[in-house]
Amino acid sequence: MGSMANSYIRFLNLSDSLVANSGSTKLDATEEQLLRVVMIAHSQGSETLVGDLLVLSHIGSQATLHGRVHNLIAAGHLKLVVDLNDGRKKKVIPTKQALKHYDNLSKLLAKAVVA
Known about the structure:
Layout (H helix, E strand, L loop, with lengths): L2 H20 L6 H15 L4 E2 H5 L7 H13 L3 E5 L7 E5 L1 H19 L1
Antiparallel strand pairs: 1-3, 2-3
């Protein structure tokens, strides 16, 4: 295996141990993808609405996505904020917990590449 592949495998092992040692529940693949969408938009200064997530049919059905968004909220990774101009719109924003999770993943990625 090439060194980049080895780095990625080290990163995967480190990230698995991060979840195991944190005591938090492991997110499933759909939840990871949804959180990733929100985090990327957040990092670019864009807002994400619940409706934006529910149309991501390549990730799952609308019912599945709706349930996973609620799981992410219950797990403390996302927070809903009702739009003051239009009460029907609900913004989804990452919590401090989600930001810390991605900060930890970034550190692990750097560690895996240097190792």
